[in-house]
Specification:
Chains A, B: It is an enzyme of class 2 (transferase). Chains A, B: This is Glutathione S-transferase. Chains A, B: It comes from Sphingomonas yantingensis. Chains A, B: Its EC number is 2.5.1.18. Chains A, B: It holds the Pfam family GST_C_3. Two copies of one chain form a homodimer. The first copy, chain A, is mainly alpha-helical. The first copy, chain A, has two domains: about 80 residues, 3-Layer(aba) Sandwich (Glutaredoxin), CATH 3.40.30.10; about 120 residues, Glutathione S-transferase Yfyf (Class Pi), Chain A, domain 2 (Up-down Bundle). Helix content of chain A is about 55%, strand content about 5%. The first copy, chain A, contains ten helices and four strands. A four-stranded mixed beta sheet of chain A has the order 2-1-3-4. The model of chain A has no long low-confidence stretch (mean pLDDT about 95).
């Protein structure tokens, strides 16, 4: 049975890390809310009882329902060999994915620093301040860490000789930052050659290349996590 | 060999979720920066190469170094039976811990909405706005989810008949919110009787009771994640 993935149908958002791993691995899934609607997602979420997701994305395997991106990827990694089996490797990939989750949350908070429930245009001054710190301090710190991760092994991938879900997630980090902060990325990405080379290798994986060329890949937009507001970018 | 835990020595912070699981499980560890200093922690962190932590806390097992709270707890859960062995249970506990991590990040961002690198007093107006949304929307949403989790099984604990690291973490969530938002918690915690009962059971675990009575438990303070600024509290 194909997995049922539930996530907001109009954005890449956090769900994209799951979509990329599924597509790269050639794993069959249905993107339920894209087949149906936002309302169907909310109805499904609200109808669940017991061990429920706190928020999308979540993956219905038919036997269990798994939420939280890093948790879904941990499951897919073990079940579909999108991660090595050795304990130290599994922990390292999960750790990397959780650090990526931290970056994603911070990238979101740049345009919504004060109130998630309010609009960007209601908090533009605060967002400008948050963006300055994000560009100057946080982007180099995260990207430097991921560059070290890309260099911390002998193979082409973060855990060695086979791509893993952490590799597809690092691809998405570079994509998202380039979209949201093109001027800043152009200025600094030369400092992270191993990460950029890894990004390029992921883009060439057959499953990823086919996905990116399809209409299943939703374009970045200003409803997602990585948003391009030119006034928040800068060298 | 005792584990070496590295975390900021002056605060509970994120490290407290690890300390509580270790103490509840009677697992031997050394709290390295408390034995030494902040500077020793930074020196240790900066001296590491290869698969490095992005930030504290991290646990040096002698064989590997594990960072990110949920990842450390995943390891301890499997290694020391602080979690059940069945896949669905392990995924559920990890999922809960990741949702707790989301709450912890949001609780931090209440007092530092605009700039993590700046002081609270430099962003008090924005913090007041962030706190209003956190108290009104986010606290009931998270607490309601954890109440459901406490009710989603037949036993006394979130995964059944034995306490797990997710139970000790939920204890800490209640403790932290009571410290930071005492008026708000007094007003609403009656809505979450299963969660509060679980909190009380954790407090009575012998390892936890001994820890809380010891000077190893650092008091909450305004350098940590959960901070009590009376102006950010309210019913």
């Amino acid at each position: 049975m194909a997995y049922k993935l539930w996530y907001w149908p109009g954005i890449q958002g956090r769900g994209e890390f799951v979509r990329l791993a599924l597509e790269a691995g050639g794993i069959e899934y249905r993107d339920m809310a894209r087949e149906q609607s936002d309302e169907a997602l909310l109805a499904d979420l609200n109808a669940r009882a017991g061990r429920t997701p706190f928020a999308p994305p979540y993956l219905d395997t038919g036997e269990t329902v798994i939420a939280q991106v890093a948790n879904i990827l941990l499951y897919l990694g073990e079940r579909h060999h999108l991660a090595p089996g050795a304990l130290a490797d599994r922990l390292w990939l999960n750790q990397l994915q959780l650090t990526i989750a931290d970056l994603v949350a911070e990238a979101h908070d740049v345009h919504h620093p004060v109130a998630t429930g309010a609009y960007y245009h209601e908090q533009k001054a605060e967002a400008a301040c948050a963006a300055e710190g994000f560009r100057a301090e946080r982007m180099p710190k995260f990207l430097g860490h991921f560059e070290d991760a890309a260099n911390a092994n002998d193979g082409d991938w973060v855990a060695g000789t086979r791509w893993t879900y952490a590799d597809t997630s690092l691809f998405q980090v570079v994509e998202g930052l380039r979209y949201a902060f093109p001027r800043r990325m152009a200025a600094i990405e030369g400092d992270y050659p191993a990460l950029i080379a890894l990004h390029d290798r992921v883009a060439q994986l057959p499953g990823v290349a086919a996905y990116l060329a399809s209409d299943r890949r939703i374009p970045f937009n200003e409803d997602g996590i990585f948003r391009h507001y030119p006034e928040l970018d800068g060298e």
